[in-house]
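Morning F.,

Quick status update on the modeling queue. The single chain you submitted on Monday has been processed. Sequence for confirmation:
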Amino acid sequence: MDKDTQKKALQALERQKKQYARQNEYIKNSFDRVSVTLPKGTKERIKTITGESVNAFINKCVMEALESLEE
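Structure tokens below.
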């Protein structure tokens, strides 16, 4: 790899690092993070049965439960 190509690759890597930092800062300021531990195989069951990602499924369930509790 010549020097110009190496320089461009390093610049691209730096841009990517800055982008990740901006994304992480936005997420930190905009969302709450919750860790969930489920029995083995649950993720695959959720994906198979609902066709949704685990995160989407959990978000939907939590929001529906909160709405029903607020009524």
